[in-house]
Amino acid sequence: MQELISEMEFSRYLEDQGLAHTRDYKVGPGDFDFRIERHSGPIYCDVKEIHDSDFQSPVDEIDAHLHLRGDIRKLRRKYKGKKLNSPVILAAMNFSSRFFTGLTVDRALMGDTEITVDRRTRQVIHPLHHTKNAVFTKDKNTSISGVLIFDR
How far apart are CA 53 and CA 62, in angstroms? Predict the structure, then answer.
């Protein structure tokens, strides 16, 4: 299997930081890209790339949050049914033609954001809140510790 640029860059980063790691660590039905050795125990890490979508949004929306949600779901399937006692990190690298921000990551993890305003009075009826499509909730996030946006 051909190694992705993102995995090579992440491996180089770990080496530059002096962090011992194992590549393609087998767990459950899949494997993690990295097992990072720490004095407190291992950290499992999977590296994903975000590319431009195949479709063009009619409102030219940044859709990286959709890619992140999908990557989190794929990562969870790798160790489905296996209980892990160590942190699991998704490291995502942006190879798309668009930048994204912390709000993009927040939307991916916590769901879409919404605020409701009365058109006539312009008063806030319902303050900013998350609506749906969350992949990190107290019920859903039982194994992934976090998302790292890795920028080389």
Answer: 10
What is the rounded CA–CA span in Å between residue 89 and residue 75? 9
Who's near 47: CB < 8 A, 6+ residues apart? Answer: 4, 6, 7, 10, 33, 34, 91, 92, 93, 150
**H helix runs in the chain, sequence order:** 5-16, 64-78, 102-110
**In angstroms, rounded to a whole number, what is the distance separating the alpha carbons of residues 11 and 30?**
19
Chain length of the chain = 152
Predicted TM-score (pTM) of this structure: 0.75
How does pLDDT run along the chain (152 residues), one tens digit per residue?
A: 456 888 999 999 999 999 999 888 887 777 888 999 988 889 999 998 888 776 655 555 656 777 888 888 888 887 777 777 888 888 988 887 777 778 778 777 777 778 889 999 999 988 887 777 666 666 665 577 788 888 76
